[in-house]
Design a protein that fits this description.
The chain is of the alpha+beta class. The protein contains four helices and ten strands. The strands form two sheets. Strands 1, 2, 3, 4, 5 and 8 form a six-stranded antiparallel beta sheet that branches. Strands 7-6-9-10 form a four-stranded antiparallel beta sheet. Helix 1 runs antiparallel to helix 4. It is globular, with a radius of gyration of 22 Å. The relative contact order is 0.18.
């Protein structure tokens, strides 16, 4: 009787491993990110309206070649690099701005939350003027002297219609977000618990 159950146990174990791998892959490919930036296929992807760009932050003096697409771990010099994924962006003028999150909007910030153009100007700590980039890539460097919460913004303007496509992405500098980490850990535990419950239920039904 025991021998007859061994193949079932092996199949259940194999199924559990496959299911867990799929769930973990799904977690890393979707959900995490702030505003217009998300993680997809181990890449930081920025959504600018219907268009996409690869977004990365570096701290070469402190973190060597480590890449960041959400929060920046330390104060100091940061290099932001943007590479267009959608070729349509190459024909548009694009600007880049970082503002201080003076109203504590947080990670759910949207463009409508930022106030008037005057409000945005007053809160701006870095601005790169609109420019058309046929090469599809640009870098911006800024030194953050102190910890804080910030909001990045990219605006691309269509050369013919003048329509603006906006990406807004909140981020923190030098601040450890316990809430984000705990949310991810909780989600992992829920997924693992779901797989375990499925296997236990399956085993109980077979032994009945």
């Amino acid at each position: 009787m025991l021998k007859s159950r061994i193949p079932d146990l092996e199949r259940s174990t194999r199924l559990a491993r496959i299911t867990l791998a799929m769930l973990l892959a799904l977690m890393t490919s979707v959900a995490f990110g702030h505003g217009g930036v998300s993680v997809e296929d181990d890449m930081c992807v920025m959504q600018v309206g219907p268009y996409r760009a690869h977004f990365t932050g570096y701290q070469p003096e402190r973190r060597a070649t480590q890449e960041f697409c959400e929060d920046i771990p330390e104060t100091g010099r940061v290099i932001f690099a943007i590479d267009y994924i959608s070729d349509e962006l190459r024909g548009m003028e694009t600007d880049f701005r970082i503002i201080k999150d003076v109203n504590n909007i947080g990670i759910r910030a949207k463009y409508e939350d930022l106030g008037t153009k005057e409000d945005i100007e007053r809160a701006t700590v870095l601005y790169r003027a609109p420019e058309r980039l046929p090469t599809g890539t640009f870098t911006v460097t800024h030194t953050f002297p102190e910890k804080g919460h910030f909001i990045g913004m990219v605006i691309a303007r269509h050369p013919e219609t003048g329509k603006e496509f906006i990406s807004v992405f909140p981020f923190a500098v030098g601040i450890f977000r316990w809430g984000t980490i705990l949310t991810r850990i909780g989600l992992i535990l829920v997924l693992v618990g779901g797989v375990a419950a499925f296997l236990i239920t399956r085993a109980m039904r077979k032994s009945a």
